[in-house]
């Protein structure tokens, strides 16, 4: 009697993201597994072009088929050290695999890669880590809901108090602009930079936004609200899997009085439905924060997000959260910097805040 053939074992290796064929296979696997936009090699590539952080990743395979994928950005900052992030400048990521065992193999391989590259930590913006890694689901929540079938139903889907704010915004003569050209990009960056400066946060380099827009084509755009010819609110949104995600957005000081942010998000809901989207992903917010409450006011139910991390032996855990008390004085100081100076220095610092 002949002995049965042994099943091929699963292999794990560093992905070659310079090989178009390898990238295409991984993109196909992400689509098949219904991964997020942050799992896509295209996201890693945009981050690399926009910030200089090398796109990397670990792929698992068996019998010629991909069984798992862990996207990684190799983030190296003189201020914040070196870490492997899944995925850089993202709110999602982590291992995408056909089984828990494969997820754990990917994470083990990431540990080895971190030690070889002198990275002090690995951060997963998602679940799937081995049990001894540090995982939490009490720090951030995601917010997503279905879009309504028409404009009036969309307005009525918003709770009464927030709906009243939107109705007031609809009475203001705003100009709504949607595009990806230079005017849209420049307006967005000016507004976004002013918005994060008011929060005490360094602004990301504009090259990151440009790289994302260039990489994703019709799957990314900018919606800007202008009042009397001046941009007062603007958001760069991503489209993936039937959902729109307003990702990098904000408003100027005048936006609050004008209720421009309310108009911006409502117009984005209408625009997204016209593009064929059926859900609105309001992104993540820190649990209990102001943005967390703002999204609840829109009728979104918070869903806890699981984030996991690994720290190299002998290293301190990496914590770059604005809620970390070590940064509170720096945040207040940053708010007092002149905006022009903050915009000049900010991108150098923010490159490390992946």
UniProtKB/TrEMBL annotation:
<dbReference type="Pfam" id="PF13480">
    <property type="entry name" value="Acetyltransf_6"/>
</dbReference>
<dbReference type="InterPro" id="IPR038740">
    <property type="entry name" value="BioF2-like_GNAT_dom"/>
</dbReference>
<dbReference type="InterPro" id="IPR016181">
    <property type="entry name" value="Acyl_CoA_acyltransferase"/>
</dbReference>
<feature type="domain" description="BioF2-like acetyltransferase">
    <location>
        <begin position="161"/>
        <end position="296"/>
    </location>
</feature>
<dbReference type="InterPro" id="IPR017469">
    <property type="entry name" value="PEP-CTERM_FemAB-rel"/>
</dbReference>
<dbReference type="InterPro" id="IPR050644">
    <property type="entry name" value="PG_Glycine_Bridge_Synth"/>
</dbReference>
<protein>
    <submittedName>
        <fullName>FemAB family PEP-CTERM system-associated protein</fullName>
    </submittedName>
</protein>
């Amino acid at each position: 009697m002949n002995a049965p053939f042994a099943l091929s074992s699963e292999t794990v290796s560093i992905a070659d993201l310079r090989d178009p064929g390898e990238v295409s296979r991984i993109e196909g696997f992400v689509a098949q597994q219904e991964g997020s936009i942050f799992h896509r090699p295209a996201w890693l590539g945009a981050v690399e072009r926009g910030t200089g952080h090398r796109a990397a990743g670990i792929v698992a395979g068996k019998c010629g088929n991909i069984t798992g994928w862990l996207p990684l950005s190799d983030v190296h900052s003189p201020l914040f050290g070196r870490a492997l992030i899944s995925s850089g400048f993202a709110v999602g990521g982590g291992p995408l695999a056909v089984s828990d065992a494969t997820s754990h193999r990917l994470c083990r391989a990431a540990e080895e890669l971190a030690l070889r590259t002198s990275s002090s930590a690995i951060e997963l913006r998602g679940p799937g880590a081995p049990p001894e890694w540090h995982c939490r689901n009490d720090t951030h929540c995601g917010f997503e809901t279905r879009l309504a079938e028409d404009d009036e139903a969309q307005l009525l889907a918003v709770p009464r108090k927030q709906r009243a704010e939107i109705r007031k915004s609809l009475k203001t003569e705003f100009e709504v602009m949607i595009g990806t050209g230079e005017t849209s990009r420049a307006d967005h960056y000016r507004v976004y930079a002013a918005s994060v400066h008011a929060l005490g946060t360094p602004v990301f380099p504009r090259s990151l936004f440009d790289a994302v827009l260039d990489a994703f084509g019709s799957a990314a755009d900018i919606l800007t609200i202008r009042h009397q010819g001046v941009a007062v609110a603007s958001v760069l949104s991503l489209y993936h899997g039937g959902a729109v995600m307003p990702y990098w957005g904000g408003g100027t000081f005048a936006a609050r009085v004008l209720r421009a942010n309310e108009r911006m998000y409502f117009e984005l809901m209408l625009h997204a439905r016209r593009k064929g989207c059926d859900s609105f992903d309001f992104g993540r917010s820190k649990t209990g924060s102001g943005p967390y409450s703002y999204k609840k006011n829109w009728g979104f139910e918070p869903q806890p997000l699981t984030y996991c991390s690994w720290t190299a032996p002998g290293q301190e855990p990496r914590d770059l959260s604005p809620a970390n008390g070590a940064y509170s004085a720096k945040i207040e100081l940053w708010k007092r910097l002149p905006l022009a100076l903050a915009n000049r220095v900010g991108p150098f610092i923010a490159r490390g805040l992946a």
